[in-house]
Protein backbone atom coordinates (compact mmCIF):
# COMPACT_ATOMS: atom_id res chain seq x y z
CA UNK A 1 0.00 0.00 0.00
CA UNK A 2 1.26 3.44 -0.88
CA UNK A 3 2.38 5.65 2.01
CA UNK A 4 4.35 8.23 0.00
CA UNK A 5 4.45 9.85 -3.39
CA UNK A 6 7.06 11.01 -5.87
CA UNK A 7 7.22 14.81 -6.14
CA UNK A 8 6.85 16.53 -9.47
CA UNK A 9 9.33 19.20 -10.62
CA UNK A 10 6.94 22.06 -9.92
CA UNK A 11 6.33 21.11 -6.30
CA UNK A 12 9.98 20.27 -5.68
CA UNK A 13 10.93 23.76 -6.80
CA UNK A 14 8.34 25.30 -4.46
CA UNK A 15 9.63 23.22 -1.56
CA UNK A 16 13.22 24.27 -2.26
CA UNK A 17 12.11 27.88 -2.36
CA UNK A 18 10.22 27.50 0.92
CA UNK A 19 13.21 25.93 2.68
CA UNK A 20 15.59 28.65 1.44
CA UNK A 21 13.47 31.35 3.03
CA UNK A 22 14.95 32.09 6.42
CA UNK A 23 11.82 33.80 7.72
CA UNK A 24 9.66 30.68 7.33
CA UNK A 25 9.12 29.18 10.74
CA UNK A 26 8.62 25.59 9.68
CA UNK A 27 8.49 23.07 12.50
CA UNK A 28 11.95 21.58 13.02
CA UNK A 29 10.84 18.01 12.43
CA UNK A 30 9.03 18.93 9.18
CA UNK A 31 12.04 20.99 7.98
CA UNK A 32 14.38 18.03 8.60
CA UNK A 33 12.08 15.63 6.78
CA UNK A 34 11.71 17.97 3.81
CA UNK A 35 15.47 18.61 3.62
CA UNK A 36 16.12 14.89 3.84
CA UNK A 37 13.64 14.19 1.02
CA UNK A 38 15.10 16.93 -1.20
CA UNK A 39 18.68 15.86 -0.42
CA UNK A 40 18.19 12.36 -1.78
CA UNK A 41 18.82 11.65 -5.47
CA UNK A 42 15.79 11.65 -7.70
CA UNK A 43 13.04 10.57 -7.52
CA UNK A 44 12.15 12.78 -4.56
CA UNK A 45 9.82 10.87 -2.26
CA UNK A 46 7.65 12.56 0.40
CA UNK A 47 5.52 10.70 2.92
CA UNK A 48 1.80 11.39 3.22
CA UNK A 49 2.17 12.44 6.86
CA UNK A 50 4.79 15.07 5.95
CA UNK A 51 2.54 16.35 3.15
CA UNK A 52 -0.39 16.71 5.58
CA UNK A 53 1.79 18.50 8.12
CA UNK A 54 3.03 20.87 5.40
CA UNK A 55 -0.51 21.56 4.21
CA UNK A 56 -1.66 22.30 7.78
CA UNK A 57 1.31 24.61 8.30
CA UNK A 58 0.63 26.52 5.08
CA UNK A 59 -3.07 26.89 5.90
CA UNK A 60 -2.20 28.18 9.36
CA UNK A 61 0.08 30.76 7.68
CA UNK A 62 -2.85 31.96 5.58
CA UNK A 63 -1.71 30.34 2.34
CA UNK A 64 -4.42 27.88 1.27
CA UNK A 65 -2.80 24.88 -0.35
CA UNK A 66 -4.56 21.72 -1.41
CA UNK A 67 -3.16 18.20 -1.55
CA UNK A 68 -4.33 17.62 -5.13
CA UNK A 69 -2.00 20.46 -6.15
CA UNK A 70 0.79 18.54 -4.49
CA UNK A 71 0.22 15.57 -6.77
CA UNK A 72 0.35 17.71 -9.91
CA UNK A 73 3.21 16.25 -11.98
CA UNK A 74 3.92 13.60 -9.36
CA UNK A 75 2.86 10.03 -8.80
CA UNK A 76 2.25 7.56 -6.01
CA UNK A 77 5.30 5.77 -4.69
CA UNK A 78 4.64 2.06 -4.36
CA UNK A 79 7.38 0.36 -2.37
CA UNK A 80 8.82 -2.82 -3.82
CA UNK A 81 7.21 -5.89 -2.34
CA UNK A 82 9.73 -8.35 -0.97
CA UNK A 83 8.47 -11.88 -1.35
CA UNK A 84 9.28 -14.17 1.53
CA UNK A 85 11.17 -17.35 0.64
CA UNK A 86 8.92 -20.29 -0.12
CA UNK A 87 8.63 -23.11 2.36
CA UNK A 88 10.27 -26.25 0.94
CA UNK A 89 7.69 -28.57 2.51
CA UNK A 90 4.89 -26.53 0.98
CA UNK A 91 6.57 -26.59 -2.44
CA UNK A 92 7.03 -30.38 -2.24
CA UNK A 93 3.39 -30.82 -1.20
CA UNK A 94 2.20 -28.62 -4.07
CA UNK A 95 4.29 -30.66 -6.52
CA UNK A 96 2.73 -33.90 -5.23
CA UNK A 97 -0.75 -32.39 -5.59
CA UNK A 98 0.05 -31.26 -9.16
CA UNK A 99 1.26 -34.74 -10.09
CA UNK A 100 -1.84 -36.35 -8.55
CA UNK A 101 -4.16 -33.94 -10.37
CA UNK A 102 -2.32 -34.55 -13.65
CA UNK A 103 -2.70 -38.32 -13.19
CA UNK A 104 -6.41 -37.95 -12.42
CA UNK A 105 -6.86 -35.77 -15.49
CA UNK A 106 -5.01 -38.31 -17.64
CA UNK A 107 -7.15 -41.14 -16.25
CA UNK A 108 -10.31 -39.14 -16.92
CA UNK A 109 -9.26 -38.43 -20.50
CA UNK A 110 -8.22 -42.02 -21.26
CA UNK A 111 -10.93 -43.91 -19.36
CA UNK A 112 -12.72 -44.94 -22.58
CA UNK A 113 -9.53 -45.96 -24.39
CA UNK A 114 -9.02 -49.72 -24.61
CA UNK A 115 -5.41 -50.88 -24.57
CA UNK A 116 -6.47 -54.06 -26.40
CA UNK A 117 -7.57 -52.02 -29.39
CA UNK A 118 -5.85 -52.96 -32.64
CA UNK A 119 -7.72 -50.58 -34.91
CA UNK A 120 -10.41 -47.94 -34.83
CA UNK A 121 -13.03 -50.58 -35.65
CA UNK A 122 -12.60 -53.07 -32.85
CA UNK A 123 -10.56 -54.88 -30.24
CA UNK A 124 -8.64 -58.14 -30.21
CA UNK A 125 -11.67 -59.88 -28.69
CA UNK A 126 -13.81 -58.63 -31.61
CA UNK A 127 -11.13 -59.85 -34.02
CA UNK A 128 -11.24 -63.32 -32.41
CA UNK A 129 -15.02 -63.41 -32.73
CA UNK A 130 -14.76 -62.45 -36.39
CA UNK A 131 -12.17 -65.20 -36.98
CA UNK A 132 -14.52 -67.76 -35.37
CA UNK A 133 -17.37 -66.47 -37.53
CA UNK A 134 -15.22 -66.76 -40.68
CA UNK A 135 -14.16 -70.27 -39.65
CA UNK A 136 -17.81 -71.26 -39.25
CA UNK A 137 -18.67 -69.87 -42.71
CA UNK A 138 -15.66 -71.62 -44.30
CA UNK A 139 -16.65 -74.91 -42.61
CA UNK A 140 -20.25 -74.53 -43.81
CA UNK A 141 -19.16 -73.83 -47.41
CA UNK A 142 -16.69 -76.71 -47.30
CA UNK A 143 -19.42 -79.00 -45.90
CA UNK A 144 -21.80 -77.85 -48.66
CA UNK A 145 -19.22 -78.54 -51.39
CA UNK A 146 -18.29 -81.96 -49.95
CA UNK A 147 -21.97 -82.91 -49.71
CA UNK A 148 -22.71 -81.86 -53.30
CA UNK A 149 -19.57 -83.57 -54.66
CA UNK A 150 -20.31 -86.70 -52.63
CA UNK A 151 -23.92 -86.74 -53.90
CA UNK A 152 -22.65 -86.35 -57.48
CA UNK A 153 -20.09 -89.15 -57.03
CA UNK A 154 -22.58 -91.54 -55.41
CA UNK A 155 -25.20 -90.85 -58.04
CA UNK A 156 -22.69 -91.27 -60.86
CA UNK A 157 -21.35 -94.53 -59.44
CA UNK A 158 -24.80 -95.84 -58.55
CA UNK A 159 -26.36 -95.01 -61.93
CA UNK A 160 -24.04 -97.45 -63.72
CA UNK A 161 -26.46 -100.19 -62.77
CA UNK A 162 -29.33 -98.32 -64.46
CA UNK A 163 -27.65 -96.68 -67.45
CA UNK A 164 -24.91 -97.90 -69.69
CA UNK A 165 -24.49 -94.56 -71.46
CA UNK A 166 -22.03 -92.14 -69.76
CA UNK A 167 -24.06 -89.05 -70.74
CA UNK A 168 -27.15 -90.41 -69.01
CA UNK A 169 -25.11 -91.23 -65.91
CA UNK A 170 -23.69 -87.66 -65.79
CA UNK A 171 -27.16 -86.11 -66.21
CA UNK A 172 -28.53 -88.29 -63.41
CA UNK A 173 -25.57 -87.36 -61.17
CA UNK A 174 -26.03 -83.60 -61.88
CA UNK A 175 -29.77 -83.79 -61.11
CA UNK A 176 -29.11 -85.65 -57.85
CA UNK A 177 -26.31 -83.23 -56.83
CA UNK A 178 -28.60 -80.25 -57.63
CA UNK A 179 -31.44 -81.63 -55.50
CA UNK A 180 -29.04 -82.36 -52.60
CA UNK A 181 -27.46 -78.87 -53.01
CA UNK A 182 -30.86 -77.15 -52.93
CA UNK A 183 -31.89 -79.16 -49.87
CA UNK A 184 -28.60 -78.26 -48.21
CA UNK A 185 -29.14 -74.54 -49.04
CA UNK A 186 -32.68 -74.68 -47.62
CA UNK A 187 -31.44 -76.16 -44.34
CA UNK A 188 -28.60 -73.61 -44.22
CA UNK A 189 -30.97 -70.67 -44.74
CA UNK A 190 -33.38 -71.95 -42.06
CA UNK A 191 -30.48 -72.37 -39.67
CA UNK A 192 -29.23 -68.84 -40.36
CA UNK A 193 -32.72 -67.43 -39.81
CA UNK A 194 -32.93 -69.30 -36.50
CA UNK A 195 -29.58 -67.82 -35.39
CA UNK A 196 -30.79 -64.32 -36.22
CA UNK A 197 -33.96 -64.87 -34.18
CA UNK A 198 -36.37 -64.82 -37.11
CA UNK A 199 -39.13 -67.50 -37.52
Automatic annotation (TrEMBL):
One of its GO terms (cellular component) is endoplasmic reticulum membrane. The keyword Transmembrane helix applies. The chain crosses the membrane at residues 136-158, 170-189. The keyword Repressor does not apply. It is a multi-pass membrane protein. Keywords: Endoplasmic reticulum, Membrane, Transmembrane, Transmembrane helix. Pfam families: Vma12. It is found in: Endoplasmic reticulum membrane. Its main location: endoplasmic reticulum. InterPro entries: ATPase_Vma12. One of its GO terms (biological process) is vacuolar proton-transporting V-type ATPase complex assembly. PANTHER family: TRANSMEMBRANE PROTEIN 199. This is Transmembrane protein 199. The lineage of its organism: Eukaryota, Metazoa, Chordata, Craniata, Vertebrata.
Amino acid sequence: MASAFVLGDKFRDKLTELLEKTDSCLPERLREELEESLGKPEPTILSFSAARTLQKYLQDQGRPFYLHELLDGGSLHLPEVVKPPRNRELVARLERIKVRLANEEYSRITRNVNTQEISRNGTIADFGQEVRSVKAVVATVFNFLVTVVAAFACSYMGSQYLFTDTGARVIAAVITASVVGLAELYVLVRTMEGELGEP
